[in-house]
């Protein structure tokens, strides 16, 4: 009898959970979907997920197999019928169906620890989107949100989210100069009074740094390395400014013999293929400063520039840029989380969120 009563109680609790998920206040998710990583914030819980933006597709049946970190770990290791790819190109969606699959899986992983009945859980979504999206592109993002199961979808501009995440005076009558160095793009923005005064976008970022290293090692040393090796190499290069004699060991395949080969070279040498990209970033900042309204240029001079994005903490890039630009450059701790932290802050402060939304849809 007691066992039957316990079973009935468990059933009632389960049904009650279903009704709560169906009719209770829907959870609010914020999503920063970049060219290389996705980060998800859950209202009341904080940042609950970070995954690589990769998908594995089976070309025999055209079905998506896995996504996220699991897919990234398979990079360079798959048989011919499985391809590993990134569905985001330069901050823009290049494969709608792939992004939808990826987001559905990412949201499932994010909600799983907190909601038992994911199939019944409705949620609201806040997306950070790049500047300059067309109306069609914005509606495509909204449609993706709808198909993931969202009840409401909100869009705000990425630089605004980053500004809040960096604790900049976004809503005040002062200029904040941001440089976001992401995986696929570098974006320079000037923010004031809750909006973007001007912006410049460079179609290159951290992934281009990695590809430059791959090409350099192939052409200069006859060594073939994969994208993952190049990504790992970026993390250990050290200082751009200091004249270091430290060596780094790199393993790959010899182009001459086709056999495994390991070389040791100075870390400083590996910055050679990266300087052109640093130069492009400097030129982009110069262009933006030249177009800055006179009333805001003094703020740039007084407060300098704030770096954000996954490649902002690459070596001592801030010191290098400060030396070249002769301006104060600030990099906060974990700059790659600036956007998602800003989105999270806005979720917890809806009165401010309502002032910076660029598109809203309810289903």
UniProtKB/TrEMBL annotation:
<keyword id="KW-0067">ATP-binding</keyword>
<dbReference type="Pfam" id="PF06723">
    <property type="entry name" value="MreB_Mbl"/>
</dbReference>
<dbReference type="GO" id="GO:0008360">
    <property type="term" value="P:regulation of cell shape"/>
</dbReference>
<dbReference type="InterPro" id="IPR004753">
    <property type="entry name" value="MreB"/>
</dbReference>
<comment type="similarity">
    <text>Belongs to the FtsA/MreB family.</text>
</comment>
<dbReference type="GO" id="GO:0000902">
    <property type="term" value="P:cell morphogenesis"/>
</dbReference>
<dbReference type="GO" id="GO:0005524">
    <property type="term" value="F:ATP binding"/>
</dbReference>
<protein>
    <recommendedName>
        <fullName>Cell shape-determining protein MreB</fullName>
    </recommendedName>
</protein>
<dbReference type="GO" id="GO:0005737">
    <property type="term" value="C:cytoplasm"/>
</dbReference>
<feature type="binding site">
    <location>
        <begin position="231"/>
        <end position="234"/>
    </location>
    <ligand>
        <name>ATP</name>
    </ligand>
</feature>
<feature type="binding site">
    <location>
        <begin position="183"/>
        <end position="185"/>
    </location>
    <ligand>
        <name>ATP</name>
    </ligand>
</feature>
<dbReference type="InterPro" id="IPR056546">
    <property type="entry name" value="MreB_MamK-like"/>
</dbReference>
<keyword id="KW-0133">Cell shape</keyword>
<comment type="function">
    <text>Forms membrane-associated dynamic filaments that are essential for cell shape determination. Acts by regulating cell wall synthesis and cell elongation, and thus cell shape. A feedback loop between cell geometry and MreB localization may maintain elongated cell shape by targeting cell wall growth to regions of negative cell wall curvature.</text>
</comment>
<keyword id="KW-0547">Nucleotide-binding</keyword>
<comment type="similarity">
    <text>Belongs to the heat shock protein 70 family.</text>
</comment>
<dbReference type="InterPro" id="IPR018181">
    <property type="entry name" value="Heat_shock_70_CS"/>
</dbReference>
<comment type="subunit">
    <text>Forms polymers.</text>
</comment>
<dbReference type="InterPro" id="IPR043129">
    <property type="entry name" value="ATPase_NBD"/>
</dbReference>
<keyword id="KW-0963">Cytoplasm</keyword>
């Amino acid at each position: 009898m007691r066992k039957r009563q316990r079973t009935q109680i468990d059933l009632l609790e389960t049904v009650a959970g279903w009704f709560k998920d169906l009719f209770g206040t829907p959870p609010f998710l914020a999503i920063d979907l970049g060219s290389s990583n996705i980060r998800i914030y859950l209202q009341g819980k904080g940042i609950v997920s970070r995954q690589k933006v990769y998908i594995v597709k089976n070309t025999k049946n055209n079905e998506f197999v896995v996504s996220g970190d699991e897919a990234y770990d398979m990079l360079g290791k798959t048989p011919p019928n499985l391809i590993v790819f990134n569905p985001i190109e330069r901050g823009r969606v290049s494969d709608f169906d792939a992004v939808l699959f990826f987001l559905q899986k990412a949201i499932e992983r994010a909600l799983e620890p907190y909601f038992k009945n994911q199939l019944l859980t409705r949620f609201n979504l806040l997306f950070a989107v790049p500047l300059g999206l067309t109306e069609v592109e914005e509606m495509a993002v909204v449609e993706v949100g709808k198909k993931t199961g969202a009840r409401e979808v909100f869009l705000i501009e990425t630089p605004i989210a980053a500004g809040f995440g960096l604790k900049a005076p976004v809503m005040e009558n002062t200029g904040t100069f941001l440089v976001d160095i992401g995986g696929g793009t570098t974006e320079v923005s000037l923010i004031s009074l809750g909006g973007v005064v001007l912006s410049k976008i460079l179609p290159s970022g951290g992934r281009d740094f990695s590809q430059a290293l791959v090409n350099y090692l192939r052409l200069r040393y006859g060594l073939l390395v994969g994208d993952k090796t190049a990504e790992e190499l970026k993390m250990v290069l050290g200082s751009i400014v200091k004249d270091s004699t430290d060596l780094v060991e790199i393993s790959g395949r010899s182009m001459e013999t086709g056999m495994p080969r390991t070389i040791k070279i100075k870390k400083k040498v590996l910055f050679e293929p990266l300087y052109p990209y640093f130069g492009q970033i400097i030129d982009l900042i110069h262009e933006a400063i030249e177009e800055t309204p006179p009333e805001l240029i003094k703020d740039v001079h007084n407060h300098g520039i704030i770096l954000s994005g996954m490649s902002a903490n690459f070596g001592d890039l801030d010191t290098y840029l400060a030396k070249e630009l002769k301006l104060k450059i600030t990099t906060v701790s974990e700059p790659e989380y600036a956007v998602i932290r800003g989105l999270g802050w806005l979720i917890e402060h809806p009165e401010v969120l309502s002032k910076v939304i660029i598109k809203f849809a309810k289903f």
